[in-house]
Amino acid sequence: MTIIQSSIRINASIDKVWNVVSDLDNEPKFWKGTKEIKNISREENKITREITIAFKDSKCMQEVTLEPKQKIQATFTKGIIDGTKTIELIPIEDTTEVEVTWDIKLSGLIGMFTGMVKKHIKNGTDQALKSIKQEVER
Fold first, then answer.
1. Taking burial as the number of CB atoms within 10 A of a residue's CB, which of 12, 27, 50, 62 is the most buried?
2. CA-closest candidate to residue 2, choices 100, 85, 84, 105
3. 132: buried, middle or exposed (CB in 10 Å: 19+, 13-18, 0-12)?
4. Which residues, 6 or more positions from 57, have their beta carbon under 8 angstroms from its beta carbon?
């Protein structure tokens, strides 16, 4: 598995940050690697969805678990990505630290390009965090 980590400090309360990051339908607005989302089902804090990622418009299935004002965990259940993307919120005084950890591997032949794809995911995650910070702090 490949681990990719990134974080950013946002000058806002955890409530304000949670309102933005937990709006999963808006994910493509911040995460440029996610092109489209189709929600399949929702039961309490669990969402099953199909996402289209930028890499060759590949479709992946995810189960997303929301732990309000703490964590969002997206588990890839089908597609070229296997593993998880976890977004954690950590309150620090009047600010919120947002930490993103990818623990993934690429399946099939695409696995050969893990190093190259890792760089794209890291850059995309850094950009998403900057965009989320701008949105929350305005």
1. 62
2. 105
3. buried
4. 35
CA within 13 Å, CB half, 95 = 8
pTM above 0.70, yes or no: yes
Q: How far apart are the first and last CA of the chain?
A: 37
Q: In the numeric block, which tokens belong to residue 90?
A: 């950590």
Alpha-carbon distance 86 to 41, whole Å? 20
Q: Which residues, at least 6 apart from 68, have a Cβ–Cβ distance to it below 8 Å?
A: 18, 22, 45
> Which range marks the domain in which residue 59 is found?
2-137
Residue 109 has pLDDT above 80, yes or no: no
Write the DSSP symbol of residue 70.
T
CA distance 19 to 34: 19
Number of domain units in the chain: 1
Half-sphere exposure of 15 (CA within 13 A, CB side): 1
β-bridge partners, 103: 3, 84
Q: Which two tokens stand for residue 43?
A: 């039961």
**Selected residue with higher pLDDT from 7 and 1:** 7
